[in-house]
Design a protein that fits this description.
Helix content: 40-55%
Mean pLDDT: 81
Order of helices and strands: HHHEHEEEHHHHHEHEHEH
Shape: elongated
Distance between the termini: 6 Å
Strand content: 5-15%
C-alpha cells in the first residue's frame, strides 16, 4: 500500500511540475507592457535590462541593391513613410551591396552585381551620397528619391537637383578611388554579417537579424520600430498593431543579457532567445513530451498498483 501511495504522490508531483512550467500564456510581445504581466511571467529582470539598453534610438541597417525590386519596395513603401513619422526614435544606415561580388585587380576593387553593371554604379552613387551628405534626413530623402525614380542608377542627378544637393561631388566620388574604397567597405560589412545575408533587402535591428524580424519589417516596419523603442512612444505608435509572436518561450533565471530586440522578437530564433535569456520552446513538442511524461507516470502507477 505504501508503494501505491508513493506512486500516486510521484504522479501528482509530475503533473504539477509539467503544468507549472507553462503557466505564462501571454505572448512574448506583451511581456513588458505592464507590471502585472512581467511579474506573472517572471521576466522583470529581462524587461528592465532591455529597457535600460533600448532607451536610445533604435538602430536600423538596410543591406540593399539599387536595382533590387524588393529593396525598392521596402524603402519606398515601408522605410520612408516610417522615417517621415518616427525619425526621432530610430537611426538608419544604408549598405548598398547586397549579393554582389568583388575582386581585387590592378590596385582597385572590381564589383559584379546581381542585376548587372548599372546596379553597381547605382550602389556606389548611394554609398558616396551617404558618405558626403552626412545629414541622415538628407541621405534618406536622396536614396528614397533614387529608388522611386524610373531607373535608380541614373536617377541621382535629378533627385539631387530636386533636393538642392550638389550632385557633381557625388558623381566625382562615384568615379574615383574614394568611391571604389567606400564600396569595398560596404562589401566588408555585408560579408561580416551573422547570420550571412541570403536575401535582399537584409534588415537588421540593433545589430540583430531573424526571419521574424525580416518579415515584420517588410510588412509593418512602423509597428516594428514602435515595438522596439521603449522611450515615450510617439502618438503614431498608438495606431500600430503590436506584433504577437506565435512562438512561445520560457523565462530563464539569469538577469544579465545581451538582448537588443523588443520582446515580440525574443522568441524569433534560438540564437536570439539565448541572448535574451529566454528558452524557445515548440508547443507541439512540449505537449507531446508532457503527454509522454504523464503516460509514463500513469503506467508506473498501474504497475505498482497491480503488484500490490
Amino acid at each position: 500500500m505504501l508503494k501505491c501511495m508513493n506512486a500516486v504522490i510521484l504522479l501528482l508531483v509530475t503533473i504539477v511540475i509539467a503544468t507549472k512550467v507553462f503557466t505564462c500564456d501571454i505572448p512574448p510581445g506583451m511581456w513588458c507592457t505592464s507590471q502585472d504581466i512581467l511579474q506573472n511571467c517572471q521576466v522583470s529582470a529581462q524587461c528592465e535590462a532591455y529597457k535600460q539598453k533600448a532607451v536610445k534610438p533604435v538602430e536600423v541597417a538596410v543591406y540593399m541593391e539599387s536595382l533590387c525590386p524588393d529593396s525598392i519596395r521596402f524603402i519606398n513603401d515601408q522605410l520612408y513613410p516610417t522615417w517621415q513619422k518616427l525619425q526621432d526614435v530610430f537611426s538608419i544606415q544604408f549598405i548598398p551591396f547586397g549579393k554582389a561580388l568583388e575582386m581585387r585587380y590592378n590596385n582597385q576593387w572590381i564589383f559584379k552585381c546581381q542585376h548587372g553593371p548599372d546596379e553597381c554604379k547605382g550602389n556606389i552613387i548611394q554609398t558616396c551620397a551617404a558618405f558626403l551628405l552626412k545629414d541622415t534626413n538628407t541621405v534618406v530623402e536622396f536614396i528614397n528619391c533614387m529608388m522611386n525614380s524610373t531607373y535608380p542608377p541614373t536617377g541621382g542627378e535629378t533627385c539631387a537637383r530636386d533636393l538642392n544637393i550638389d550632385f557633381s561631388k557625388i558623381a566625382h566620388c562615384a568615379n574615383s578611388s574614394l568611391g571604389n574604397l567606400l564600396e569595398h567597405q560596404m562589401a566588408k560589412m555585408t560579408m561580416l554579417l551573422s547570420p550571412r545575408l541570403n536575401y535582399v533587402p537584409w534588415i537588421t535591428l540593433n545589430g540583430e537579424h531573424t526571419v521574424a524580424l525580416q518579415q515584420r519589417a517588410e510588412a509593418d516596419f512602423m509597428g516594428l520600430i514602435c515595438d522596439a523603442y521603449v522611450g515615450n512612444k510617439p502618438e503614431v505608435c498608438a495606431t500600430t498593431m503590436t506584433s504577437l509572436s506565435r512562438l512561445r518561450c520560457l523565462r530563464r533565471e539569469e538577469s544579465e543579457n545581451e538582448c537588443n530586440l523588443p520582446p515580440s522578437l525574443w522568441c524569433s530564433s534560438h540564437r536570439v532567445a539565448e541572448k535574451c535569456k529566454v528558452i524557445l520552446k515548440d508547443d507541439s513538442l512540449s505537449t507531446m513530451f508532457s503527454a509522454v511524461w504523464f503516460l509514463n507516470g500513469l503506467n508506473r502507477y498501474l504497475e505498482t498498483a497491480a503488484e500490490e
